[in-house]
TrEMBL record:
Lineage: Archaea, Methanobacteriati, Methanobacteriota, Stenosarchaea group, Methanomicrobia
Entry's family note: Belongs to the UPF0104 family.
Assigned keywords, A-Z: Cell membrane, Membrane, Transmembrane, Transmembrane helix
Pfam families referenced in this protein's UniProt entry, alphabetically: LPG_synthase_TM
PANTHER family: UPF0104 MEMBRANE PROTEIN MJ1595
A GO cellular component annotation in the UniProt record: plasma membrane
Main location as per UniProt: membrane
Name of the molecule in the record: Integral membrane protein
The organism's place on the tree of life at top rank: Archaea
Transmembrane segments: 9-28, 48-65, 123-147, 167-185, 236-256, 268-288, 294-314
Topology of the protein relative to the lipid bilayer: Multi-pass membrane protein
Length: 320
């Protein structure tokens, strides 16, 4: 366990060192860009920010409804509002742990056990079922983004050749990567699918509602990002917003920094730059988006954790 922690610390220190080096090296170029970003943020249309935040809250509520639908199929009659504190608390923990959802999901299971008497097994199965069904809209969105992604020019040797990856090759590459990952984690996936199969009779009743709600959450995410763009007077296409949405998820999964700090911001800004958005506008967009999805969500989650005693439960996750 100590080796794992040591490796994570070394990676974080390495990234921090690289970041400091890059900032010092390009400080002269960074200062004007920061000034432009602050000017853009100063002209933010607050009404769109409020709408984006409300859409975010609605998304979390849909997550609660989704979980409530699965729980009801196995005999737990709860209101979606009863589950909101747990979900916001899980979001807060996710924002403090590397690899999105690895910290929040155990908290959901333990908190549901303590507050509503939901067994660990049932809690695990319901959360697992949610995530598996959610992969359907995620994969569809990923395929859309990859298929229509602009051609990538990769310089293998500066003076000899340039490899161009069009959308077809990029899509094929993505499918190969997914296949390799499935094969690599086949034992874990087989065990998880076996758990779902054993409880399929009960869970199948909620499949359609969960699929619809999961798709609705992703639609709301795209609407939220569009509202953030409108708040900054940025005309982002539907494709650009969809690409940002899916990349946000992929970067957040990387187990490098807490809540993907630095990794998410750098990745999203790089994507927006590649798609033609100026650096100052890209930075402003990402800052405002993270203010809502990371800053405000963490604040709400912390308040819920403090009020309902979730902090003690969070500490206990280390022993499970």
């Amino acid at each position: 366990m100590s080796r794992v922690i040591l490796k994570k610390v070394m990676v974080i220190l390495l990234l921090f060192t690289v970041g400091v080096f890059l900032i010092r090296t390009y400080w002269i170029e960074i200062v004007p860009v920061l000034g432009e970003s602050l000017k853009i943020l100063a002209e933010t249309q607050i009404q769109y920010v409020i709408l984006a935040f409300l859409i975010y809250l609605l998304s979390v509520y849909l997550f609660a409804v989704r979980w409530q639908q699965v729980l009801s199929c196995i005999g737990y009659e709860l209101k979606a509002t009863d589950l909101l504190p747990i979900l916001f608390g899980a979001i807060f923990v996710n924002n403090l742990t590397p690899a999105n959802r690895t910290g929040g999901e155990p908290l959901r299971i333990l908190w549901a056990k303590k507050r509503f008497g939901i067994s660990y097994t049932d809690g695990f199965i319901t959360v697992l079922f949610e995530r598996l069904v959610e992969t359907v809209p995620i994969i569809l969105l990923l395929l859309y983004v990859v298929y229509f992604f602009p051609s990538l020019d990769i310089k293998l040797l500066p003076q000899k050749s340039i490899l161009t990856l069009n959308s077809t090759y990029l899509l094929l590459l993505a499918l190969i990567i997914i296949g390799v990952l499935v094969w690599f984690f086949r034992e874990i996936l087989t065990a998880l699918l076996k758990e779902i199969q054993q409880n399929w009779r009960q869970l199948k009743k909620s499949y359609i509602p969960v699929l619809v709600l999961s798709s609705g959450v992703w639609v709301l995410d795209i609407i939220r990002l569009k509202l953030i763009a409108l708040a900054l007077n940025l005309n982002l296409s539907l494709y650009t917003i969809a690409a940002v949405s899916i990349l946000y998820l992929l970067l957040g999964i990387l187990p490098i920094t807490p809540g993907g700090l630095g990794i998410v911001e750098g990745g999203l800004i790089s994507l927006l730059l590649y798609l033609g958005l100026p650096l100052a506008s890209s930075g402003s967009f990402v800052i405002l988006e993270r203010f809502i999805s990371f800053g405000l969500s963490s604040l709400i989650g912390f308040l819920y954790l403090s009020y309902y005693g979730g902090i003690e439960i969070w500490k206990n996750t280390k022993s499970h």
